[in-house]
Amino acid sequence: MTFHIKRGPLMKPVTKTCSLMFMAAMLAGCDTTTTSTPETEMTQETTSTVSGTALYRERIALPPGAAFEATLEDVSLADAPAKVLGRVGFEAPSGPPIAFEISYDAADIEPRHRYAVRARIEHEGRLMFTTDTHYPVLTQGAPDTVEMLLVRVATPPPSNASLENTYWKVMSIRGEPVTVAERQREPHLILHPDDQRVSGHGGCNSMMGGYEVNGDQLTFKQMAGTMMACPEGMEQEQALHQALGEVILWQVAGEQLQLRDGDDVVVLELESRYME
């Protein structure tokens, strides 16, 4: 018996439709094009770098394992700690110059703000070299490359720091943290016992005068300074001079120095720095 299959009118349209669907599926499977997300595009477009070199004057080689670190900081706010926007660290070469590059998000940069780079070298947790000033970058005419000079830091003794013949960095004035304005030195004091003379810096101006120490009592006298007028830091410098005039007592604990007034209130807090 012979069977005849009669093709209906819908067979060909169905066949064409299936063929088109199969071709579309094949093309979709072959498409390997990737699409960047907005987050990826933002990261690629806004990442920038600050580069520079770090030097030091001493003709010494760094020990194996010494670590170099540089940071990009927002130093705009005088009454708050600097905000770190970028950081780079690596094992330092045996000697300078040390080249570095710090990546940061350009979207974080405000044209009205001030930015600076700092650097340090440590070995086994001990600070060997550090910058003692701000190196401005990026805004207000500052470049995006810097050449920095690092200052050597000597090994501190194991006992309490001495009141005299010690570089005392001013950390706070009446509880307010001390900041270092752009292109200024850090406020500090050094008491010289040979002639009972005090020298130091307020940030904008150098200062000098005399002092008397008797047991735990300390007074500063005839304090004077240069007469430069700086656009920033003058109020802080005036507060430092005023606080020195109120000092009656001193106390050293480890590497910290507290200077107190007649009411036993801490007016100045300082920290020792052993600079060679």
Automatic annotation (TrEMBL):
Name of protein: META domain-containing protein
Entry keywords, A to Z: Signal
Residue ranges of domain DUF306 in the record: 161-269
InterPro entries (UniProt xref): DUF306_Meta_HslJ, HslJ-like_sf, Lipoprotein_YbaY-like, Pilotin
Top-level taxon in the UniProt lineage: Bacteria
Transmembrane residue ranges: none
Pfam families, sorted: META (PF03724), YscW (PF09619)
